[in-house]
Automatic annotation (TrEMBL), chain B:
The chain crosses the membrane at residues 6-27, 34-53, 73-90, 102-122, 134-153, 173-197. It comes from Candidatus Desulfolinea nitratireducens. The keyword Transmembrane applies. Keywords: Membrane, Transmembrane, Transmembrane helix. This is Uncharacterized protein. It comes from the Bacteria.
Amino acid sequence: MVETINCPVCGEVNPIELVDCNKCGRLLRQTTSELDGVGELINSGQIPTEKKTSELEMALPAWLRGAREGDKDDETTKTSDDSSLDSLSSPPPQAKESAPTKAAPLDWLAGLDNDDDEDEEEAADWLVNIQDNLPIEIESEEEVPVGIPASEEPITATEAPRPSDEEEPPLQTGELPGWLSDLQGESADGNFEAMSDLLSQKSSAAPKDVIDEGGFEGDDNLDWLSKLSKEADAISSYEETPSVHPDSLSTTDPDSPDFKEADSLPDWMGDLRPAGEVSTNETSPSIPIDEFSAQLSGESDASPISSLAEESRPLITRDDLPDWLSSEKEASSEDKGQPEQTPIAASDLPDWMTESAEELPAEESVGESLTPSSDDLPDWIASNSSEDNPAERADQVDDFLTEDALEMEALTQEQASQKESVPSLDMAVDADENKISSAIKAELPDWISEMGQPATGSPPESTDEVSIPAFTEVEEPDLVASLPTVEGIDEEKETEDAPAPGTPLVEDNVFSSSTDENVDEIFGNETPDWLSSLDPTDEDLAEEEPDDIVPKVDGNLSGGELPGWVQAMRPVGTALSDPSAGSGESDNVTAESGPLAGLSGILPSGLDLGQINKPMAHSLKLNVSESQQSSATILEGLLASESKPGSFKPQTKYSSIPVVRWLIAALLFLIVGSSLLSQSHMTPSPNIVVPEIRDTIEIINQLPEAGSALLVFDYEAAFSGEMHAVAAPLIDHLMLRGEKLVILSTLPTGPALAEHFLVETQSSHNYQRNDEYLNLGYLPGGPSGILSFITSPRIAITGKVDGTSVWDFPPLASVATLSDFSVVIVMTADVEKGRAWVEQSTIPLGETGSPPLLMAVSAQAEPILYPYYASGQVDGLVSGLSGGATYERLQGQSGLGRKYWDSYSVGLLLAEILIAVGAMVNLLAALKVRQARNKDEG
Amino acid sequence: MPDFSPELISGLIAFLLTVFVLSYLINDNFLFRAATYIFVGVSAGYVAAVAWHQVLAPQLLQPILSGSGDEKIRAYIALVLVFLLLLKAIPPLSKLGTPSMAFMVGVGAAIAIGGAVTGTLFPQTLAAINIFEFKVFEGIVMLLGTVSTLIYFQFSARRDDDGQYRRNPIFNFIAFIGRVFIAITFGVLFAGVYSAALTALIERIDFISTFTSTLKTLWLP
């Protein structure tokens, strides 16, 4: 069977001999050889070999390699699978590779640098559709914004952020970061339209492509913003640091080769471009939106716009203006000879601007010109046209458009220069807010004007750029409906107030329409921080309130209010939860005490903690009840008693001298010694004939002559004195009968004691060793030895004496078994020894004709061994000195028994007396104690 | 100059050892301990000599060296068992001495049980039965003593109403009788021990007096 190996990358089955996969070409066996040399394994402590990362390309997994390749190749990725607002909340990741111009793996950033592909770009619907139902011709978005330096080109998503040549100020409030402003792509017109439609009112059958698509295409979403920025930049020349500009305002990169001047502005703005405009590449200052609004509304003296117009070269010709604007100019062009404007197609207007024009087709095409009618004009424009000199107003419009385009471009470049800062719509709008003329701003819808107001911080006062919010989530019908009419703009412009700082940009109910779901899909569930942080708190904005570009929008939107889902994401805090409190107040809070004393702009202690007072003083005393007190007293008494020594009676000391012992000993020695030494025979020998002694005498008398008697000496040396006195008369009687003696012992010291016994007590008989008596020695094994000897003596005893077997000597010549002995005499002082002999010999010796069993025992063994005599197992028993003395008296002998009898008697008497005396003493003592106890108890 | 015969020397040693032992009357002292140590040592040595001369040599080595075939077989078996029994002293190899120990314990137990049954239990029981035929009073006394002694060792009691634990009054009376018998038995045993000890004392006093007289005779002109 051929061994195969599966490719770890593609899973293809390859022969085991191969190194690379046949299908994908990857290594079949992942080893570390590439890291530290081919065929060498990494040892501990080994310094890894440096390798070029490019050499390790093949070692990467396919998925990673594909991603890397995709990063390199996907420059023109336009579509993104899952784009959400989250992508907008974070700046585009920096390109890790050395190809800064390549698109990042993130889909939402893919295609952001496609700024040079679209010939036609849709203008921001919100800007295009400023006038209700007024189609606006949106210029191509590919116009290169004028006056934007190359370093300030909008940054695409695939590009690495380029460091700005000049030190960029921190992101101002209201400014959109560069990446946001550069959120422009080569989106199709549909995407742009979809975004526009999202922001537009729901009046018309606006295509909801973007909404339906369910995603906020990152590369296309803010095209309208970027386009606007470009258009604005194209309009005005702005040399200041560009702020964050929505991408929709500047849709094309002015530095791109495909950048066309005509494409940088929306169509309607492009038509408004005055003749003789210079190159769009020139930087041109932009005007604030509020100023722009003011200019359009005619409130202001149009000094900023006019001044800018004087300073800069107008970039927007009349031909570039939208129709609705061009119609105004036509009225004045007669006086000034301005070229006619290109009408703006109604289809180019965003839906929110075509509120009342539901019949207007929501076309995705851009660049179509729209012929604005008077009804379509925004109020601020219409008011100007109706009240003021049309010619003047036309000039003002021209200037506004020009400068607005310049501002847009500047904003776009500003966004491009932004790096990692998370854009906040608040800041972007805030920055833009400053740039919009107050007059224009007053006419702007609330939601637009609010977008331009920063949430935190104060926008730079010097910023003049037009800042337009990147996008807003608007409820279509409300927004469209809220757009003021041309006739009513005068009523609203005065009352238009800048959104309060901290107010949500868009109310929650704005998104409560049926399009919320789609909106969520587009923007995602997470709002970018720059959007959520939109909170115009700029004081300058307050001053520029009347300069809203977009007229106030009635509806659910309230100035500066963030939607609920945005607010939910904000930090919890009383100071922050209340948008109405406004961060603007924090700017005014000055610390009066504490470590921040004297500092302003601190966070208010809105938590209203109140004064920190000292805690209440509590008494240190414990509330103790009576029962607790009593318990404590008892416990205290117990503890005190523990330390006190208890009274006790002194124990009687015992003397070290044993007086009683010495006295008794002395008495014994005296009495016994004296009686022994005196040999007075004051006590007669015992003449009571006990049966056991009588039987013993009779048995000995009945023994055959010249027989062999077995003598067992099983007593210790300490009992030899007594045993001599007990057994001496018996052995003497036996020897007088002429019996031969065979000595045996189950104790090692037995044979020696036997010899000593014979020497000490039987020396008169002059028995010869091995002739008349034979000492068999020690019988080992205890009871088993006894049984062995009783069963077969010749096997149990095999000793020899001088080379001769003991069984050959005369005492054992006729003995073969235990029955051949004439008598068996067991002499012992130990109860166990005696019992063993009795138990083992009961059966053999119980038979008829067996030799008798006699025992000579000590006085201490007699109580235990006497029942054996009483039962008949022992034929005769001589016990103690009394038995020996009795045996002697019966034999008419005088031996140790008689010698010791007097002392023995006196000793026994003394013992009896002492016992009696002791008993009496104990009795009296007990009686005394009882009496004392009775007295105590009584 | 007295002739220091072996008997004199041995007597003198015995006298001294006796005095040493009797010095315990004063208190535990060195002399008494010396005497006991000498006794133990001499006894151990004598036992070892006896075991060799009368057991190992004639019953183990001699059959192996010059015994017949059967004697040799028995000797070899015994030798192996002895060797295994000696391994009991080595903890790692102690398990090898288990067979020898088991053989010894088994044989000893069998002999002891057989002897106890056949030599004590049955004969004593028969003797107790027979005694009633001839000596009724003694039988009754013996029966009473036996039963009362057994009841005395029955300590079960019942809780009374006052919470005190008391035995049955009848049982209490019988237990009292049994206690009497037990006391008498202990008295008899004590008497026997005292008698034996007294006799030993008398013998020793006699030895001392005798030896003293001998010395007196030898040393004194």
